[in-house]
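To the team - pyridoxal-5'-phosphate complex, inputs and output below.
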Amino acid sequence: MTEFAAELVDVICEVTRGKAQLHIPEISGNEWINVKECLDTSWISATGGKYISQFEELLVAHTGASFAITTVTGTAALHACLILAGVSGGDEVICPAFTFVATANAVKMTGAIPHFADIDRTSLGIDATKLSEHLSKIAIRRDGKTINRESGRPISAIVCMHTFGHICDVEALASICDEWKIELVEDAAESLGSTFNGKHAGTFSRLSALSFNGNKIITTGGGGAILAADEEAADRARHLTTTARLPHRWEYDHDLVGFNYRMPNINAAIGAAQIERLEQYLGEKRHLQSMYKAAFADIDGVDLFEEPKGCRSNYWLATLVLSPGRTAERDRILERTNDAGLGCRPAWRPMHLLAPFLDSPRMELPVTEEMYGRIINIPSSPILGRKTEVA
Ligand SMILES: *Cc1c(COP(=O)(O)O)cnc(C)c1O
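Output:
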């Protein structure tokens, strides 16, 4: 009998046809032309240039958001969203324990403290039922605020995250926010192109953050964007991320401590070219998912994670879920697959186990810990799902 880890290597290789990284960018459209124009005209910075507004308009068109404001990174976008949502130093912000560190870092960067919530197994996002029960136990409304009775600190927002592109139970989380009068912010960094009942990720909250880091479904090299639901939020987002400079022909006047967070035109030029192929990539990633699904159908001890009901996922990262009895083999599988040149990765180490967050408040996190032991992301670049023309 073939060893389990070796069997998985064979199945992945069969789909990827050999070595494959986890997720690589592809430069095959107008990137060269657009970037050359930036260089030829010397419009390369964030001060101006046509690609910033062009890319922002394309983001609005693709997401159905009312406004998009491009930023230097997704983390910067999320940091700005939290401040604009009213989060301030000494607050607590609910966020999933199962996420990339940027979610919790952005909370910390505002001076607030992340308060970790567990996830559910169907979406891998915050478990709304558990969160609701947790808040009933620990929170009270006092002086117009929601207060954590155990710490005495205000809870000012919930940040949810759409893991690997799958939309979390976002409508239930929005109701919890209504009930407790706190603001929902979506970390939609991984979910460009994903929808829930036809509504795009990042449009369930007034403010949300996208990322165009090199490993995301489309990239600007490094970059991000804030999606805003109304003009006031959009204007404030622009202001805060442009050093809070007041408009004037020559005077430098700033009315608060702002950030230099706007995306340079040269990065937006790449983004404007990349987003032209978003629909194609979405199709290829869904096709790759079906190829993996067929290949893994007869393999015991492992399942392929599938989009929750109502969600049309971008399948940013294809995800294996080991059956509970196989978790002891996770590291061996990672070793064998990586030895074979396959970019396979475990899920992120949960936030409450990371040095900067050991003292953060949290609810019980059994599903986070369980899924950390069971998940392996496998090669997911769009090209792997491309249907090649037969000559
Ligand atoms: C990629 C990512 C971010 C933002 O990352 P940047 O590298 O700063 O663009 C934030 N949250 C999650 C969950 C991510 O995956």
